[in-house]
Amino acid sequence: MASISFTKEEEFKLKEFRSRVHLIYSEPDEILVTWLRARDLNVDRAEQMLRRHLIWRKNNQIDTLKNWIPPKCFFPVLHAGHDLDGCPIFLLPIGRWELRASIENGDIVPALRYIYQYLEKVISACRDAGVYQGKDVEAFAIHLTPSQFQREFQWEGESLDVVLYSRTKIINPRFQPWFQR
Question: For the chain, which terminal residue's Cβ has fewer other Cβ atoms within 10 angstroms, N or C?
Answer without folding.
Answer: C
